[in-house]
Amino acid sequence: MTRAERFVRRVAALASKEATHIRRDVRMLYMALGMPVLLLVLFGYGVSFDVDHVPLLVVDHDQTAASRELAQRFVASDDFRLAGRVESEEEVAAWFRRFDAAMALVIPAGYSRGLGRGETIPVQLLVDGSDSSTTGTAMAMAEAIGRAANLRAAATAGRALAPPLTVTTWTRFNPQGRSALFLVPGLVAYILAIVAVMLTALTVAREWERGSMEQLFATPVGRLDIIVGKLLPYLVIGSLQVLMVLALGAWMFDVPARGNLLVLAAAALLFMLGMLGQGLLISVVTKNQMVATQAATLSSMLPSMLLSGFLFPVENMPVPLQWVSAIVPARYFIEVLRGVLLKGTSWAVHGFDLGMLAAFAVVMVALSTAKFERRIA
């Protein structure tokens, strides 16, 4: 029997042993298959950047048909909802403090008369700036409504408003502006990173605590045999996780798949191998399940959420954090996910991303093997 054949047999035996442990451990199966589904549902439906039904106050000092029509224009769509009508601007602050309103439309007296004369009417829009993300988007929508109302009023008054330049916008890849199409690919990488690292972080640490590692030392298996044998079953589970999460994302959030799925499969395999290797390295170094759990959570959750471009563009981060993000594998996996699923990209676009994922996977497996010692610490 050749050396390669002996290696394959030892790895297969260790992988079979680890698969048996996984089948008997219901909690491990729940973490592997149940947690990704739960996290995708919670984050997918709970996190949204879509701004609609913004509570709007109306302060109408004119009380005419024209002022009521302007107020109706704001609440006619789903962007704003009428929170109430007040008599003065002083009452608006109280509504803002109670979080009962986020914006207030103030229509001055003489609004209708000024429109009839073709005058410029200063309509105010008061904004609660404590939630800048919501109010910033709402202000842009309000300005668009105001411009449309201004053009309509000018046309009614018979004034010629022929703009010298007409701008037509065409939104590609996400014409409805749904935040789910932006968030779900990032959620896939975030969820898989947490679950994959947690799965293997407990593997060797559990073996050290139970003392069963000594039994492995009595056999002719080597360090690489143990590392590869323990990784393979979890790599199979990770592949199932990827398929399950992507299928659920397409079913629940209508995330398309426009590009080459082979690119996505290669990136997913490399990403899962790297994250599983990271968890295994943590378990080899710590040799304690509690410490391994804490280290796995900190090293996977925070970088995958804050430094990967999942929520915030990497280009907007300070330069030192951009350097740190260069070693976060979720950053490159998210690029592949968004490119393949939303933009229809192929191998040529993601060569660098795949290379970085492969490099991270090789480094993690190599470090895990180098740190593994055939003795009790």
Index terms:
377 residues, alpha/beta, abc type-2 transporter like fold, 2 domains, 4-stranded mixed β-sheet, 15 helices, 66% helix, 6% strand
Question: What would your notes on this structure say?
Answer:
By secondary structure, the protein is an alpha/beta fold. The chain folds into two domains: 3-47 and 177-371, no CATH class; 54-156, abc type-2 transporter like domain (abc type-2 transporter like fold, 3-Layer(aba) Sandwich). It has helices at 3-24, 26-46, 65-75, 90-97, 111-117, 132-156, 179-201, 203-210, 213-217, 223-253, 261-286, 289-306, 319-325, 329-343, 351-371, and strands spanning 54-60, 80-86, 103-107, 124-127. The chain has a four-stranded mixed sheet, with helices on both faces. The chain is elongated, with a radius of gyration of 29 Å.
Task: Write a short abstract of this structure.
The chain has 377 residues and is α/β, with parallel strands linked by helices.
SSE topology sketch:
Layout: H1 3-24, H2 26-46, E1 54-60, H3 65-75, E2 80-86, H4 90-97, E3 103-107, H5 111-117, E4 124-127, H6 132-156, H7 179-201, H8 203-210, H9 213-217, H10 223-253, H11 261-286, H12 289-306, H13 319-325, H14 329-343, H15 351-371
Helix pairs in contact: 1-10, 2-7, 2-10, 7-10, 7-11, 7-12, 7-14, 8-11, 10-11, 10-15, 11-12, 11-14, 11-15, 14-15
Total DSSP E strands: 4
Read across the widest sheet, the strand sequence of neighbours is: 2-1-3-4
Structural class: alpha/beta
Domains counted in the coordinates: how many? 2
Radius of gyration: 29 Å
User: Residue-averaged pLDDT, rounded?
Assistant: 83
The helix count comes to 15
What's the end-to-end separation, in Å?
Answer: 34 Å
Low-confidence stretches: 160-167
**Main pleated sheet:** 4 strands, mixed
Report the β-strand fraction as a percent range: 5-15%
Order of helices and strands: HHEHEHEHEHHHHHHHHHH
Helix content: 55-70%
Shape: elongated
